[in-house]
Write a structure and sequence with these properties.
There is one protein chain. This protein has helices spanning 15-22, 26-34, 54-66, 71-75, 80-83, 94-124, and strands at residues 3-4, 7-14, 41-42, 48-51. By secondary structure, the chain is an alpha+beta fold. A four-stranded antiparallel beta sheet has the order 1-2-4-3. β1 and β2 (7-14) form a beta hairpin. The longest helix has 31 residues, at 94-124.
């Protein structure tokens, strides 16, 4: 059993174990770690090792990405958003959430316009002029 320096009671997980526990790919976990979203240490063999709390961190990152946030957005979130599973949104990220919602609404509006153009093209047999 490996332990993180300074926390003798916390077992460390290999990246493969973390992947199995979270369903995230090893590649994704490496990506999150490289962007400072996870706590990791290097074992004597150079392999990444993760504290058990990384399971929660990975799951939270996955949830936030599924909501449309980028890695850069998530990096700016307070630690409570990564350390507490199913954490409620902190006041500090409300503006970021609203901005993300507005961006999604713009994308939906754009897609609806494109859909209408494509339907018109199919019905008329010719590409309509750009509005």
């Amino acid at each position: 059993m490996l332990f993180m320096k300074g926390t003798p009671s916390e077992e460390l997980l290999t990246i493969g174990q973390l992947s199995q526990l979270t369903g995230a790919s090893v590649r994704s976990i490496r990506h999150y770690d490289e962007h400072g979203l996870l706590a990791s240490v290097r074992a004597s063999n150079g392999y990444r090792m993760f504290p058990e709390r990384a399971v929660t961190q990975v799951k939270q990152v996955q949830r936030m990405i599924a909501t449309g946030f980028t890695i850069d957005d998530i990096r700016g979130f307070p630690d409570c958003m990564l350390l507490i599973e199913r954490a409620r949104s902190c006041d500090q990220i409300t503006d970021v959430q609203r901005a993300r919602l507005e961006a999604i609404d713009r994308q939906i509006a754009d897609l609806e316009k494109r859909r209408a153009r494509l339907i018109k093209t199919l019905l008329e047999g010719a590409v309509p002029p750009v509005d």
